[in-house]
């Protein structure tokens, strides 16, 4: 009988796992409580792992069993559902989510404001200091200064740089004897059409090499390494 109640990987598929009482063999009532101490698989009283609604069941010796619940359940038997926290879908950017019943609020970090803490709080020194295309920041000396967005410059971020590249995406063509070859995709590049002050020229200041595949009108194709401009800058004009 004891081997039939033993738990573990060697347990027979026909083994019993649960609570039994009034066990009789040949009409004689068996006292299972008198089983030797430490006999694996037999515990006094009724301590069945089937009581846990969800989660993992753990045997605790003579004290019975305990249920280890998953995150969505609670209670001694893991039979109570826990409502999901509203902070799981929080939109707080620079702050902490504070749950409030079925909703939440954002407790902003220093320097940020707004419902979702997504706006930088204007420092006191920046009050009335206008930055057209940028934001005001306080320098180490405590003075307000404009930090400009890309593509703008000047003390109040309202001037575009003299030499600013323009992105162009075109199919490239190569005319060869008896055929014309065209790139298989549009190639992005930066053109530098503007002028600079002080007699300088607006010219490519940063570039990279890339492989371009061409397909020709006679059905052939080939690849070519070419230099493409990434940024423009003011430089001495070529002679």
Helix fraction, binned, reads: under 10%
Q: What fraction of the residues are assigned to beta strands by DSSP?
A: 35-45%
Number of domains: 4
> Total helix count?
1
- CA distance, first residue to last residue: 104 Å
Total beta strand runs: 18
Keywords: Disulfide bond, EGF-like domain
Pfam family, one: EGF
Can you put this structure into words, describing what you see?
The chain is mainly β and 239 residues long. It has 4 domains: 2-81, no CATH class; 86-119, Laminin, CATH 2.10.25; 123-160, Laminin; 166-235. The protein is built from 1 helix and 18 strands. A 4-stranded antiparallel sheet has the order 14-15-17-18, with no helix packed on it. A hairpin with a 2-residue loop joins strand 1 and strand 2 (28-29). The N and C termini lie far apart (104 Å). Mean pLDDT is 80; it is low at 1-12.
């Amino acid at each position: 009988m004891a081997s039939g109640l033993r738990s573990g990987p060697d347990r027979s598929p026909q083994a019993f796992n649960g609570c039994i009482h009034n066990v009789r063999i040949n009409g004689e009532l068996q006292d299972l409580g008198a089983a030797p101490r430490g006999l694996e698989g037999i515990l006094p009283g009724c301590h069945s792992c089937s009581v846990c609604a969800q989660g993992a069941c753990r045997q605790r010796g003579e004290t019975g069993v305990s249920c280890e619940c998953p995150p969505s359940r609670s209670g001694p038997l893991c039979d109570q559902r826990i409502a999901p926290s509203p902070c799981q879908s929080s939109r707080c950017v620079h702050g902490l989510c504070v749950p409030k019943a079925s909703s939440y609020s954002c407790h902003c970090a220093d320097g940020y404001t707004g419902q979702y803490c997504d706006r930088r709080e204007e420092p006191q020194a920046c009050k009335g200091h206008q930055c057209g295309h940028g934001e005001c920041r306080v320098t180490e000396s405590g003075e307000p200064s404009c930090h400009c967005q890309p593509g703008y410059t000047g003390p109040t971020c309202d001037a575009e740089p003299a030499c600013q590249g323009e992105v162009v995406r075109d199919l490239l063509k190569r005319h060869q004897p008896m055929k014309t070859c065209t790139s298989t995709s549009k190639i992005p590049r930066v053109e530098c059409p503007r002028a600079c002050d002080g007699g300088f020229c607006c010219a490519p200041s940063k570039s990279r090499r890339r492989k371009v595949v061409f397909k020709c009108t006679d059905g052939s194709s080939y690849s070519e390494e070419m230099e493409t401009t990434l940024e423009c800058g003011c430089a001495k004009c070529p002679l």
